């Protein structure tokens, strides 16, 4: 190569390379081997074929239910024209992130091969033959009938409202109760207790919480906690991989659409897709922090978001978030009071609880919030969906006319007697723990406190100035070295061996001691002859 050509090549490589839709530069695509490109295209093409067939099956089942109530007495055969199938295949391919090369391969010939491979009946230009049985019905959908095509075949501009989409999904039984999740986003005061005598919590003690659980309560995602500080003092030396929650701080300290989208793709979608390979649905009420539905779709299209209008679905069906939030706050407050009791020797001191809360850090609240979230009753999740029973095949009579918005002490809350009694006993237990620590908590105080469910309608404040930490550097710099941690754990292990504890706990401590010793720096000077 001549020096002139080398200079031109170096100049071209120094320029910024444009990127493709997949985030790779064009030079990366050029350098990619033909075998890799062919393999990637085959994977996308296979995923497209399967997604198109799943859509066809769902559409045929929908026609069966709409025309004959889902019975097997009448079999409906749907014949869709090649043009309509090609239009739907192109839409699915774009959502999967297909390249222009793959989009160009989706021709009428490709559609006919797909119909032959998956056994999909083909629509011909001639009228379809008469059914062989009187109980069979054939529905033909052609390009000429585009004005009469159902909404499932229309462009995205004609897609029904989110509430109508959710109504159809739940009525059609496309997702089971385990596959339908509800997202809960609200403000939480992590130092709040049902006692009016305590000082009012400062704004910096409020955080935003986001989590999701399915209708049965069998699966619950990790909590996302959003605070005002990028890195609070209590978390300055903490590796967040060791924490049971996800913390995202800074900025306005509130949930935002970008943060919700990140949580959906990195936390919710991977966990839901692992448990439900056939797909999952995340339902959330419209709020300021909720993004567009198109931004929250898994790469394979199996996990997606449905946003329903605020208030209700238009027919009185309401998702009752307050029950989950109220029970979470109640269980968290009980754990907080129990921690005060365990870590204090003088239980009669008047300022016992305020003194403890003054030194209580956000890091200490993480494990309590995690345990509170996991110990929620499964029945509470089911009760949140009682008013939505009209959208499914459930009996509408099971829905209470006035559902309880939170845990209450009275039995006239609209809940069943068994649930009302369980709610009442939980609140009474919180009241008893408060009285044991010298707090004056009346029934009215408890009822008022339980109704504070951290509504997501709280004003979304603008970006605040970063607060200065009151904790000194000396207070947070006392992190022990690995050798010191191993010595302390060894002393704790001696005490644990004298108690009737679970052997698994002792094994965990021994493993942690080994990890701490392995993290100790090795002094190589003692083994060098010239040291």
Provide the fold topology.
Blueprint: H1 3-14, H2 26-31, H3 34-68, E1 75-80, H4 82-95, H5 100-105, H6 108-118, E2 136-141, H7 162-172, E3 180-189, E4 206-214, E5 224-227, E6 246-249, H8 257-275, E7 280-285, E8 303-308, H9 322-342, H10 352-358, H11 362-374, H12 378-384, H13 417-436, H14 443-451, H15 473-476, H16 482-496, H17 503-518
Parallel strand pairs: 1-2, 3-7, 5-6, 7-8
Antiparallel strand pairs: 3-4, 4-5
Helix pairs in contact: 3-4, 9-11, 9-12, 9-13, 16-17
Written account of the structure:
- With 531 residues, this protein is an alpha/beta fold.
- The protein has 4 domains: 29 residues, no CATH class; 112 residues, no CATH class; 271 residues, no CATH class; 45 residues.
- 43% of the residues lie in helices and 10% in strands.
- Strands 6-5-4-3-7-8 form a 6-stranded mixed sheet, sandwiched between helices.
- Helix 9 packs across helix 11 and helix 9 packs antiparallel against helix 12.
- The longest helix is centred in the N-terminal third of the chain and has 35 residues.
- The protein is globular and about 85 Å long.
- The protein starts with a helix and ends in a 13-residue tail after the last helix.
Rounded to an integer, what's the Rg over CA atoms? 30 Å
Task: State the helicity in percent bands.
Answer: 40-55%
Basic shape? globular
Distance between the termini: 54 Å
| Secondary structure: number of strands | 8
């Amino acid at each position: 190569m001549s020096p002139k050509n080398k200079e031109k090549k170096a100049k071209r490589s120094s320029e910024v390379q444009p990127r493709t839709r997949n985030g790779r530069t064009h030079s990366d695509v050029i350098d990619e081997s033909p075998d890799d490109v062919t393999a990637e295209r085959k994977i996308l093409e296979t995923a497209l074929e399967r997604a198109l067939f799943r859509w066809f099956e769902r559409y045929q089942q929908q026609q069966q239910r709409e025309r004959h109530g889902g019975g097997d007495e009448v079999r409906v055969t749907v014949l869709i024209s090649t043009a309509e199938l090609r239009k739907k295949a192109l839409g699915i391919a774009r959502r999967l992130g297909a390249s222009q090369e793959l989009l160009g391969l989706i021709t009428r010939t490709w559609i006919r091969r797909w119909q032959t491979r998956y056994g999909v009946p083909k629509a011909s230009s001639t009228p379809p033959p008469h059914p062989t049985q009187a109980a069979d019905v054939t529905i033909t959908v052609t390009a000429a009938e585009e004005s009469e095509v159902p909404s499932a075949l229309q462009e995205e501009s004609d897609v029904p409202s989110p509430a109508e989409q959710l109504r159809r999904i739940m009525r059609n039984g496309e997702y089971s109760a385990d596959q339908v999740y509800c997202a809960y986003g609200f403000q939480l005061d992590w130092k709040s207790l049902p006692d009016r005598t305590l000082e009012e919590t400062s704004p910096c003690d409020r955080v935003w919480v986001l989590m999701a659980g399915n209708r049965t309560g069998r699966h619950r995602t990790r909590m996302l906690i959003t605070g005002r500080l990028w890195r609070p003092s209590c978390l300055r030396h903490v590796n967040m991989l060791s924490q049971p929650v996800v913390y995202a701080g800074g900025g306005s300290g509130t949930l935002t659409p970008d943060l919700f989208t990140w949580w959906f793709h990195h936390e919710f979608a991977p966990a839901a897709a692992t448990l439900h390979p056939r797909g999952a649905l995340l339902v959330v009420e419209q709020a300021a922090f909720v993004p567009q539905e198109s931004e929250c779709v898994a790469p394979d299209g199996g996990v997606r978001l449905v946003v329903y209008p605020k208030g209700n679905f238009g027919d009185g069906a309401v998702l009752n978030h307050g029950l989950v939030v109220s029970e979470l706050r109640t269980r968290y407050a009980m754990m907080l009071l129990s921690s005060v009791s365990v870590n204090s020797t003088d239980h009669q001191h008047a300022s016992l609880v305020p003194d403890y809360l003054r030194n209580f850090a956000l890091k200490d609240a993480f494990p309590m919030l995690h345990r509170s979230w996991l110990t929620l009753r499964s029945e509470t999740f089911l009760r949140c969906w009682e008013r939505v029973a009209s959208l499914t095949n459930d009996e509408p009579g099971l829905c209470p006319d006035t559902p309880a918005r939170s845990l209450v002490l009275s039995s006239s809350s609209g809940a069943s007697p068994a649930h009302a009694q369980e709610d009442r006993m939980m609140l009474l237990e919180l009241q008893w723990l408060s009285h044991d620590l010298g707090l004056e908590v009346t029934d009215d105080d408890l009822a008022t406190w339980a109704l504070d469910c951290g509504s997501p309608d709280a004003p979304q404040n603008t970006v605040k100035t970063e607060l200065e930490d009151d904790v000194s550097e000396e207070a947070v710099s006392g992190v022990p070295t690995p050798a010191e941690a191993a010595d302390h754990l060894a002393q704790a292990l001696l005490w644990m061996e004298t108690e009737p504890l679970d052997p698994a706990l002792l094994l965990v401590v021994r493993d942690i001691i080994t990890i701490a010793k392995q993290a100790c720096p090795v002094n190589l000077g003692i083994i060098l002859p010239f040291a």
